[in-house]
Write a structure and sequence with these properties.
Blueprint: E1 5-9, H1 15-24, H2 34-42, E2 45-51, E3 54-63, E4 68-76, H3 85-96, E5 102-105, H4 112-117, E6 123-124, E7 127-128
Parallel strand pairs: 4-5
Antiparallel strand pairs: 1-2, 2-3, 3-4, 6-7
Amino acid sequence: MSPEIAFDLDARIEPGAYRGLRAAVGWSEPVVGDAELAAALARTWNVVAREGRRVVGIGRLLDDGALYATICDMIVLPSHQRQGIGRGILEYLVERSATRTIVSLVATAAGRPLYEAAGFRLESRGSVGMLIRPA
């Protein structure tokens, strides 16, 4: 990993930076305004990877504080992928949620090897992760 990369823990993520990262990896545009998006981003514990002042990666943790946590929005700019940034972000998120009963996430095909290397599995004790996309 580049020595210029710094990780900010419990960081604030600006809606513009978030939208830019999503666009850079081909994810859909959030269908909420900046005020709603800022409120949603403020409700998670965030890790932001920066190269100087530039945001090059993020990861978010939605955590109930006792039982369950969900890792979401693991994004690293394509130009900075495969340099250990995603692994670094994931390590902070997993460490933060280490005492939870279940830590879940939804993986993209590209991210799946990273998550499997960190111990995530498709099935855990007979449970199967499921989701619905109402919008």
